[in-house]
Design brief:
3 copies of one chain form a homotrimer. Chain A has about 325 residues and is α/β, with parallel strands linked by helices. In chain A, about 10% of the residues lie in helices and about 30% in strands. A 12-stranded mixed β-sheet of chain A has the order 8-11-14-17-20-25-28-31-34-37-39-40. In chain A, strands 9-12-15-18-21-26-29-32-35-38 form a 10-stranded parallel β-sheet, with no helix packed on it. A 9-stranded parallel β-sheet of chain A has the order 10-13-16-19-24-27-30-33-36, with no helix packed on it. In chain A, strand 5, helix 2 and strand 6 form a beta-alpha-beta unit. In chain A, helix 1 packs across helix 3. The longest helix of chain A has 16 residues. The mean pLDDT of chain A is about 95.
């Protein structure tokens, strides 16, 4: 059961209702009228709770589980304990996501500007937006309707934030346009002066960075991640992109729609990721490259060349993953010799 | 001598007193009544100061040192200049730690809530706690006795912080329970929504993250590090764990007691580190793994499998360190051929 | 054209004026009286705008460009479209930097301390300095003349900041002395307690960290980067050093003048980088090492030994780059076999 200090649970729902919400099928013999009070992990769920099995690694936990009901793939149904009601679907994690959203809908919040917030008189704050303590909004900035701006956030001059976007504590934004329904996490830094300078005989010459950061609708940007503004072109984060914590995006980078960038990965300046590209944790991509649609970069890989659409690369320098693991097995043989 | 703008020195102490504080033995012929005014690095210490030698790499610096006294291992005593008084111990760094603590005890601070702090009326702030400028404390949060909460810290709704914990500027906490005597550094982000979503035909479905972060007593978390809350289970940081700067901890991760995670390392979701595990700088561990008690991961290594207790691994993918260095010497031979 | 919500353009300038500003030569047949209204990227510049070509990768874009004028190397001049006026120089990026600075000079700002800033009565704030909303300045701190301190910055007790330094939102500084004309980006954390502790039988003993951070003039430190204070010696960042985002600098590290540390790189405690050293992105350097003058570390490399002056190293563990790429070609041959 989620800690009531932090989460409010909706429900209860009948299993039949949940099957509908999750797009899953009630298994033969399962009780559509069973009342479910909450979701819970397979290891801790009790008789009034619903769990899910997504990763076969947790099949032994399923067998030992006391959960009243479970969402799982039909082929895993035989492993469920007797008496456990089942919701069947080929995409159990997806069904769980929707059902958990029903139990834990986004919390409603009261609009209003906290008395300690400093909002420039030329800024526009949309209807229903909530600005918490010590928020700062600069001249000519626009905060969309129903935005939730947490404590200590700084929104710089001219910044535009679309409706229903949420920004967590301590983030700061400048030189950027943010879409609707985005979620920017605590400590995010958007619109920083990119790392642009030119070497000269007497040190470095700053190159003015006169582009922006454009963040598409529904994008998520993780805690303490940094996104530099463009040098002239813009830096662009595509709609629906999911960027994790401590990720670095250099100036002029283009991140396509629905890309996933896992924690501590980084993309150097002027590189383009087409739609649906995935960078695993701690991966890095050099500057001025193109990664094709749906290409994937393994954890810790270092990409030094363009990657064709659909290809998965691994290693430093990164090569196609099959070649990489062939190399690893060559090394293993050499170690045995 | 430490800069008096930042540090206040206690003392002086006699060498005899310091021997006792540090658990070290006064060398034969050293003067127990010698007055020591401060500690200082071996290269800059003068006649009224005490230094230490921990790393043999600095033996030449010892020989050239003007320090009045030095803590060192007895086997290095012959290398000390004549006239330098010596404190002997097999653990010189430890003795130095205790002696330096005597010279630089934790500074006392005055309790009280700064007039610009925003503390919800339902929050509880313990006796003697200090809340500096612009601190925000949400509804139903609890701040323990004698906590020192620096400027601009945000403590979210329901968060509980144990006694004597210190939080540096600009950190933000939500959905978490923090132990006693912890030290959270500037810009730390705890309790962020984990990177949890499920792919569906029309983009990504957010999976509600309904767990917490539990941080044990005496834990230290470095500047700008990020710790996501659990997805259902909790994310747990064990008592006495030492986490450095810019470290990423994914949802549901369990970090054991006394673990050490050096800067820029990361642990992916649902992985467990048993007690006393050490990750060196920039190391990464994939999700859903177990690292056994006292296992160690070398700098920059990428761990893709479970690691048995006590084992040290290195490389990408990580293998036992002896094998890794055997592989390196195979490469060296191939380069010579 | 740069977005007028964020940038104010100066000018127009004649091409002749710009040639002089940029130290470039007007090509034969180009019109010195041509009026240039702005700078713009080669792909989007129009007839009233000036662009530049630095990277031959963009020669096709030059050929297709509608820019009125372009800065480039004389050997690329033949590739320019007819009618495009040209500024010739062997260092086009440098010339562009100076010309762009003319179009986009550092914005003037009004001095003054925002009414929500909390400045200790013993602190000194220089003439013309600007302290924005919610800035906190501790006891005995000094902020130089004409400093621009953005919203939510925390300047700790005793900290000294030189004239004309700029600090972006949400940064926090303690135990440090900062030079003149520095630029510290959003979320920077300077002066944190270094990762110093000693193992003992009953856990860890904190080693008091009684050094400072000294940052030289004209240094730049990127968003969310962390620099720990010294343990006894100081941590030093040389004049003119350029540190990118999410970089970690451990205690006692010495960074030489003009060093470049690209994003997500890290330097462990007590290591020295001589002048002009470059670390590429995600590189790491172990503790207690010395990297010689003008040495370079490739992206993602892991340095475990001293590096001689001028040498470039690559790989984990890092070796001279030529050897590394010889090793890569050995691997390629093995994969083919």
């Amino acid at each position: 059961m989620a800690d009531r200090r932090f989460f409010r649970v909706a429900g209860p729902f009948t299993l039949g209702q949940l099957a509908q919400i999750g797009g899953a099928e009630l298994a033969f013999g399962s009780d559509a009228e069973r009342l479910v009070e909450d979701v819970a992990p397979i290891t801790t769920a009790g008789p009034s709770e619903l769990s899910f099995l997504n990763n076969p690694r947790y099949l032994p936990a399923l067998e030992a589980s006391r959960a009243g009901a479970c969402i799982l793939d039909p082929r895993h149904a035989p492993r469920a304990p007797k008496g456990m009601d089942l919701l069947l679907t080929s995409v159990p994690y997806n069904a769980y996501a929707r059902i958990a959203q029903a139990f834990y809908p986004a919390r409603e919040f009261e609009g209003g500007i906290h008395e300690t917030a400093v909002v420039d008189s030329s800024a526009i704050v949309g209807k229903g937006a909530r600005l918490e303590a010590h928020v700062v909004v600069g001249p000519n900035a626009q905060v969309g309707a129903r935005c939730h701006i947490a404590a200590q956030v700084v929104i710089g001059e001219g910044v535009v934030i679309g409706d229903d976007t949420r920004i967590e504590s301590g983030a700061s934004l400048s030189h950027c346009l943010i879409g609707e329904r985005c979620h920017l996490h605590a400590g995010v830094r958007i619109g920083n002066r990119g790392f642009g300078f030119s070497l000269s005989s007497d040190g470095y010459e700053d190159v003015p960075q006169i582009g922006r950061v454009i963040v598409g609708d529904d994008a998520e940007i993780g805690a303490n991640s940094t996104i530099d503004r463009g040098s002239g072109p813009d830096t662009v984060i595509g709609a629906g992109a999911k960027i994790d914590n401590l990720v670095q995006i250099g100036h002029n980078v283009q991140i396509g729609r629905g890309c996933i960038l896992v924690a501590q990965s980084g993309v150097a300046g002027s590189t383009t990721l087409a739609d649906q590209v995935m960078l695993a944790a701690q991966a890095g991509v050099a500057g001025h490259l193109t990664l094709g649609r749906s290409s994937r970069v393994a954890a810790k890989a270092g990409v030094m060349r363009d990657v064709p659409p659909g290809q998965t690369v691994c290693g430093i320098p990164a090569i196609p993953i099959k070649r990489f693991f062939r190399l690893v097995s060559i090394w293993q043989r050499q170690l045995k010799a």
